[in-house]
Give the backbone structure.
Amino acid sequence: MEAIDLIFWILALVTCGSAVVVALSPKLIHSVFALFFALLGVAGLYAALGADFLAAAQVIVYIGGILVLLIFGVMLTNRIGQSHLPNELTHGVSGSILAALVLVAVLRFAGAWRDSGDPAWARTYRSDEVSQLAKTERIPAVKNTTMTLGVHLLTTYVVPFEVASVVLLVAMIGAASIARKEVD
Amino acid sequence: MQPVTASVGAPDLKDRLDVLLTYLPSFLSSHGEIVSAVFLLIVALAVLLGVSVYVCLAVWLERKISADMQDRLGPMRVGWHGVVQMLVDPVKLALKEDLCPGAADRPFFMLAPFVVLAASFATFAVMPFSAAFILADLDIGVLYVASVGAGVLVGLVMAGWASNNKWALFSAIRTIAMLVSYEIPVGLSIVTVVMMVGSLSTQKIVLAQLSDAGMAGWHLFRFPPVFMVSFLVFFIAGLAEVNRTPFDLAEADSELVAGFHTEYSGMRWSFFFLAEYADMLIVSMLGTVLYLGGWAPLTVTRPLTIDFWVFWGMAALLAWYLHWLWTRIYLPRGEYGLIVVQTAILIAIALALLVVPSLAWFLIKSLALIFVMMWLRWTLPRPRIDQLMYLCWKVLIPVAFVNLFVVGVMRLYWR
Amino acid sequence: MQYVEDIFRTLLTCAQGMRITMRHLLFTDNITVQYPDHKRVLPERFRGVLHADSTKCTGCTLCARACPVNCIIIEFEGKGKDRRVARFEIDISTCMWCGLCVEACRESAIETTLEYEISCYVQDDMRLKFGLGPKKEQLPAERAEPPAPQAPSSGQTGGPSTPPESPGGSAPGGQQP
């Protein structure tokens, strides 16, 4: 077992454990704080896969932005401490079957059984293997993902990028105009 | 530990530490993964230890500086001029009882200080202490600093909520409102620098400022006054980010007892304290890296450069001040000890500049910024929360946006 | 433009404030002293603890009347020419150091001193006693009296049958039957 395996298992444990707390905790605020650790674990997994920019963006957007907004919402809610979330399991069997089906589908499309043996993304490579593979271009070199991402965002994918920013801007202006007090 | 190849071209860099740190990792990694991992761990622990020592020193210095600014004496009892205070304080905190209020949210109450501390200490991983002394030269260095800062925010809010105390809760709400707002000007002013360099890596940002001209290569003096304004915005917003006094509404002791750490005691309380001073250091170091050339040394030995005049001018000013202090204050009172200590500190700084120039320059620049933070703390009163928001949304952010635009135009046509 | 002007004024006033603090840091000497080791030289007319010279005191009670907080207690004994001050007490925990008593005194018998370290372990030490007279030892006896009746009274509340030597445990003992 290499060091990266150990790191992966720790991160996976943190992520899944926190996710279970998010789903099952009777207190809303506990769910929110557990979500923090789950998102952090996901960011760690990204980083372990070499997607460092994605990991940082994940932390900034999901923890620095969305999670904080969630906490803010919870805090501004009156008497949130007394409210009790009904966490009963409903549609247990059908839900489990659906979830299992989705998992199988995702794994299938991700190529889990496409070839014999593990798919490229599910294996951990030793450093000499990585350089070997990078030469034969079976896996892309993960060096400097930031630059690649930036170049792609502003050349190949510039239209979706701009559309997304316009959508966000519209949402922001809309929120501001809704929140604004009428001034005579 | 990744030796930076570009640093070989650095001008007359006879840094023993760098030489050691450049060759040691490759030497150690030839002995296997475990050895280099242990080495990395040791260096990381050394950085943690260094930061802890800095915190103790900074607390004592802050007490002395604030006392002197208010014409008081400050701590005098423990040791010579209260120096041992910096050892006694942590011991006292370690011995205090670790209380948890009965109505508190126990698991998160216990966890929060560790989240805050871990998040602020994690930032030091990307700080370039010298050409080779950087724990992880990430491609996304500056972004990493900004993202890990979110952990501090969540930790503070966790503490504020879990305390189950109205002051702590108010403080948590203020913390969120403040930190979310002030992250924008900080980010925008960081982006101006990143646009100039074309990289997020802290080490590359420092290397971009490394030149024979020394100080003239700093980003601070690029396109004056654009980057000076950018630095000002960064510094003011950074001050708010770390809850320092003109902007310490989250722990406003005259209104909220102590804010989010009202209910904490002992070691857990000291973790917040440690994190606060570590955050100060982070903002100072980031400011140094982004605008003040990081570990890039001043070219003090080459005559008739700007650096030469600035450095020796400041040295002359310091010498004049010390002379004034000794002849007017210390000698009439017979306080020879102070003279000896001040001389020893100067000699120590000079030695550090000779032996580990880049590390010493980095620390001197960062500590100078920390001094400015302390100076501001004991000068300015605390604004109201609406004034705070006005400052952020109506002053800093527009200014930062204008700056960003100007830098973009400059970058297109001039470089 | 007001907006730009405000920004510049903010920066300017911050710089002014910083200049002041820096001046105090660098060039102004400390005005506080390390207290028990060094003490400040007090001005001559410093109003410290009051002192009454009982050889000069005529017992006119002008000082007690002048006192706004009634911290001076003067009692007499004897009649006519034998009349003398039996008790002259100043409660300095009540005294507010106004010095009106000093101005009222015609004989300059009561004066302020330069003494200001008045902390003590027992509250009664705050009552400065200047009274002269043959029955001076009566004062401690008066003081000793009040605690004496307390001991039997606490025994009585515990119950008539319980012996007085069990002070604390008498209340739960009463609930047992």
